[in-house]
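Design job #97: recover the sequence.
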């Protein structure tokens, strides 16, 4: 097997019935199964019946070939060889990288952060090979997932101009776009620094969610309590105004009105207390929401920054 552009060197032994005669061997290159050779070249056989031949095949396209060596007596020997395209060579190298990595890295629990660590390891190996690689955070099961639902990380590599292959680092295999296009969606990062920032933000977001969810619940409960108290207070004042304000009251009615005023004053104090609690809860809610909004803005900024990396 040869990479495209390499020089093919062949060594062998030619047995001749007359050592001083037939000192030439003919070597021909055929596309596999073809009848006519692409190229034929002669080489002299040394006194010890050996020969060495270097053939420049840089112009040959990638594919399967056979090399046929023959001596004038008609005896032939055939050797098959393959010329890989750069894309095929890169795929072979990447497949070995991810398979070898998987053999020596096993985890009992796989989550986003473990996946990210493994993806960074493989990215470094691929980068050392001189190939362009990107790190990806995404969701391989849901094409419509937002970044809040991203739960996996992996690597994609450019094997040829605008040709990419995904490396499933936790499973040890390659994934083509047609097999699972979700491997080609997500947030893309040029290097581990970007992915680490994403991981830190994800941790912060998850921690903030743990704090924010109960705060939202408490805030909503306090809003409901305030609305209930406000509506009750308003119903008392409306009832009082309709029944007693501007009316000629009997002594009994006047005493009743005084009792209702005391109730209204009591409920008003309760309303003030609930409003103060709601105001405090609103401050807490707004502060936590601001933190969430800042994290979201930074995550969206990362997503926008990486959006065009595969096309750059």
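Job complete. Output follows.
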């Amino acid at each position: 097997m040869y990479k495209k552009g390499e020089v093919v060197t062949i060594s062998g032994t030619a047995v001749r019935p007359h050592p001083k005669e037939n000192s030439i061997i003919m070597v021909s290159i055929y596309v596999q199964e073809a009848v006519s050779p692409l190229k034929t070249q002669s080489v002299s056989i040394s006194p010890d019946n050996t020969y060495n031949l270097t053939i420049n095949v840089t112009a040959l396209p990638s594919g399967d070939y056979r090399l046929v060596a023959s001596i004038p007596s008609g005896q032939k020997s055939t050797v098959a060889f393959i010329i890989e395209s750069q894309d095929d060579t890169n795929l072979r190298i990447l497949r070995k990288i991810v398979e070898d990595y998987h053999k020596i890295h096993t985890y009992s629990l796989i989550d986003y952060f473990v996946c990210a660590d493994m993806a960074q390891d493989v990215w470094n190996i691929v980068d050392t090979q001189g190939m362009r690689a990107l790190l990806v955070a995404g969701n391989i099961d849901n094409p419509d997932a937002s970044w809040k639902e991203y739960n996996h990380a992996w690597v994609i590599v450019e094997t040829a101009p605008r040709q990419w292959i995904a490396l499933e680092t936790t499973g040890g295999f390659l994934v083509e776009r047609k097999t699972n296009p979700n491997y080609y969606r997500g947030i893309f990062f040029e290097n581990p620094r970007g992915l680490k920032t994403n991981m830190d933000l994800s941790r912060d977001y998850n921690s903030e969610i743990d704090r924010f969810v109960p705060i939202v619940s408490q805030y909503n409960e306090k809003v409901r309590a305030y609305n209930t108290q406000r509506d009750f207070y308003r119903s008392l004042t409306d009832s009082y105004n309709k029944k007693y304000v501007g009316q000629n009251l009997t002594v009994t009615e006047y005493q009743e009105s005084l009792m209702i005023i005391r109730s209204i004053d009591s409920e008003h104090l309760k309303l003030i207390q609930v409003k103060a609690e709601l105001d405090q809860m609103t401050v807490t809610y707004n502060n936590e929401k601001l933190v969430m909004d800042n994290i979201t803005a930074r995550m969206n900024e990362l997503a926008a920054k990486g959006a065009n990396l595969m096309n750059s």
